Amino acid sequence: MTDLVHAEVNLSPRSKAKREQIIQAAQTLFLRDGFSRTSMDAIRAKAGVSKPTLYNHFDCKEDLFIGIIEHSLDDISGTWGLISGKPLAVNSREQLRQILSQFGSAAVDHLLAPHTVSLARTLLAETSTFPELGRTFRDRITQRVLTMLSAVLISAHDQGILSIDREMIPAAVRFFTAQFLSYLLIDGLLVGGLSPEPPTPEEVATIVDLYLEMICRGEQ
Fold first, then answer.
1. Which of 188, 196, 205, 213 could form an SS bridge with 117, CB 3.0 to 4.6 Å?
2. In this predicted model, what pLDDT tens digit does every residue of 161-189 receive, in sequence order?
3. To 5 degrees, how large is the angle CA 70–CA 194–CA 138?
4. Domain ranges of the chain
5. Element (H, E) at 56
6. What is the pLDDT of residue 84?
7. What is the pLDDT averaged over residues 34-53?
8. Class of domain 4-215
């Protein structure tokens, strides 16, 4: 399966436009008809592209579904410049606070966006029938976020900012992301038909500050 982020790097403007057409068409059909009832041929027709063009960009339906999520996820990771392979060096607790606050704000905005909530419902409804879809989501989406955050905490650890052992970083990353995923679960997936209200900037700041009290040394 392709990786959307890296696949787009060397595309021409025309190819990028075609890819965007395909993604938008697929998202419309997946949300309207569900994953199982949407065919690649229906996506091709909706996007107005040829069959070779469709399969040149996406190998299969699962690849395309995950590609939609990767496409929207870029709003979070792109903020840090991590897509380019140049993760931030963390030199102070305040810098770490700013990075995590930026992530938290972008994460809740993304997670509570109506199309994200709808895609999450579709994903959960289809994984029992299409387990490969769930595994692909874990490997290409969840792992990508965990890896990015781990790199940030490892940098902070190496600068002596963290009070936890390096071996604890994977668990610390999962603990942090769980705080924001709880908004998707409680305020998004469990409240059908309503637009979920994201936490205020003050609430995000409180989550980050409490987290830093757990994993950091004293103010530096």
1. 188
2. 999 999 999 999 999 999 998 988 888 88
3. 25
4. 4-215
5. helix 51-57
6. 47
7. 92
8. mainly alpha
